[in-house]
Structures are given as structure tokens and as C-alpha cells.
């Protein structure tokens, strides 16, 4: 089969479109023929070597949409099932293996292209909002990187849940109209969001802030987080660690919560099934959508990575087989 193989860490040129052996399925695993896979910013960090120096060569990618072609005799899945999945050893390939607990059926009327955009960002976003952040309708919330894949989902899901005020941040203010169409009330840049949040909340601050950027954005977020508010930290796309002091939280009764979908997939995969079922329903009923920025052929994975690194896109970037 064809796959994108990485034999060293570096820029997009290290991604090679190569012939590799089709993976062999183990017990309670599915072999899936891939239709589409998404490009996540985590893929960029892994390719560069920021997310740990894993064993090389490796295949990147977190999630796929495709068709089950081989299963156990007593599997809950059947050959021909349309599914989304979190593969075992990377997603940038024509065939992948996935643990049955990380495979989820999708309805016939949900196109593979839209399905491939959703696994990581929609499941993560739903858990961030409802389990970690525990949003309420009366909340004022801030969503950083609101034009990205996770940000696009967070805005829509928050609006669907009736959140009172949604503020989104973007690196380029030209993306403001896109984020507002998704449901944000106010969109501003990272340079201006602290003052804007205080202005929009009568100097009370935001109740919940969702931060995947870290670095300076974390400390700036604490400057506009309300008493009893929650900072939800789930990434560091800036490449820098965010910092805070204990005095930032105890006297103000604020809290900081961290979450990783990767950790949850590894250590508590059963937790994902009910969330996946819910977000698939929302996509099927078109209550939420995930705009597709661009689709590249698998052989053009390097071009897809360059686009994601440029941040000059809105929504999700996909690869197709």
C-alpha cells in the first residue's frame, strides 16, 4: 500500500510517499480502507520533533474516515461498515489498523469528507465544553484560535448550547467574519483580547477561557478571567509553555484545568464512545458543520503541511487516498 513515511525530523520535505506493507490486524482490531484523513496541528509538531522523539520511521496522522475491510468474528463491526477511527500506527496511509474501542460507525448519509474532518476536533471540543469546562448558558467564554479546526467546533457547539457571550481570538483579523458566521459574538486579535473581554463583560472577566496556544496567551488570559472562572489548557501551538503563579488562582477562587485527547485515547478509550455518538448525530442532522479549507491527495501531504503551518486557512485541511 501507499503511505506517507517520515524517516527523520524536519520540515515538510521529510514526508515521503512510499510503498509499505499493509498492516496486520490483531485481536479486537479493525483493518480499515481509508477514504480521507485530516491534518491536525499535532501532526506538524510530531513531524518537527516537538512532541517527543518517537521511533523512526513513522507514519503521521491521528484520525481517518473509511470502510472496515477485516474484523474479528465476534466484532461489533462488520465488513463494509462506514466508520471514523483513531488508528494505531498513524493515519497517512491507504489502510490502517484501529482498536475497536476507537472505531465509530457513521451513517450512510454522512459523506466521508465531512466525517474525516470531525474525529479529533469534534470529540475534543465536545469534551472540553461539557466535561472539562462545564459551560452554562449564562457564561461569557473566550475561545482562542477560533478559526482553526478545534476553534471552529468550539464556537459552534457553544452557540448550540446557548452560551450567552462567545468571544473568539484570531491571529489575523481577516478571519473575523468566518468566526462570526460560526456563531461568535465578538472576534479580536491576541494583542487586543484582554481589553476586549473586560469591555464586553463590564470588567468582570470571562467565566471560561479555552487556550490551545499557551505562551504569553496564557498569562494574558488570566488577566481577564473572572472570579471563580476556569482556564482550560489543552495545547501549546505557540511552542512556548504558559506560566502562572499560585497567587493567580487561590485568592480569586479560579482554577486551571488541563486536558489531552491523546492521553484519553490511550488510557481511557471507553470514555469516547458516547461523545462520538453525540457529535456524529449533530453532524448527520447538520446542526454543526466543519468547513473544509482544502483537500490534498495523500501524495501531496507536504503541501498540506505547509498550508497548515502558514495558518492561512479556515476550518480543516484534509488528505484523500
UniProtKB/TrEMBL annotation:
An example Gene Ontology molecular-function term: mRNA 3'-UTR AU-rich region binding
SUPFAM superfamilies: GroES-like (SSF50129), NAD(P)-binding Rossmann-fold domains (SSF51735)
Location of the Enoyl reductase (ER) domain: 10-319
InterPro entries in the cross-refs: ADH-like_C (IPR013149), ADH-like_N (IPR013154), ER (IPR020843), GroES-like_sf (IPR011032), NAD(P)-bd_dom_sf (IPR036291)
Sorted UniProt keywords: NADP, Oxidoreductase
Coiled-coil residues: none
A GO CC term attached to the entry: cytosol
EC numbers: 1.6.5.5
Alphabetized PANTHER family for the sequence: QUINONE OXIDOREDUCTASE PIG3-RELATED, QUINONE OXIDOREDUCTASE-RELATED
Record protein name field: NADPH2:quinone reductase
Organism: Oceanobacillus polygoni
